[in-house]
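Researcher: Please predict.
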Amino acid sequence: MPPSPHCIPNTERILEAIIEKLPENPPYFPKDELTNKPMRFFVSEIIREKILLHYKQEIPYSCEVIVEEYKDTEMLVRIRAVIVVARDSQKGILIGHQGKMMKRVGTDARKDIQSFVGKKVFIELFVKVDKNWRDDEKKLKRYGYLD
């Protein structure tokens, strides 16, 4: 491995020593796959990112994105996702006046998902209130936060 031009003196020797100690293992998934996570995971994370970018205060940290449907056809990917919030007031804030904020989130998410999957995307977003879901152990398990 050639030394990086950005390495600090002696860093190359440390890096070589670390690499020498690392065990070799077979890959965890095929080389042509970026990860072992399903596409629904990436879609929900892209939508969540747009929520974090467009909203302030409590909304981003009180929501969960669930991809209910992901249909990949030759020409189009159809996605239906539900954004779960803990209070009615959060639902109104998330949707925004005349649905403008939700449209903005959906448009930005669609653009990023299209770039990611390499084809046209149709996305439907819904907002659902699940009262105090963050304080309920069963719901946290259902949403994947607890084992």
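Model: The first strand starts at residue 63 and ends at 72.
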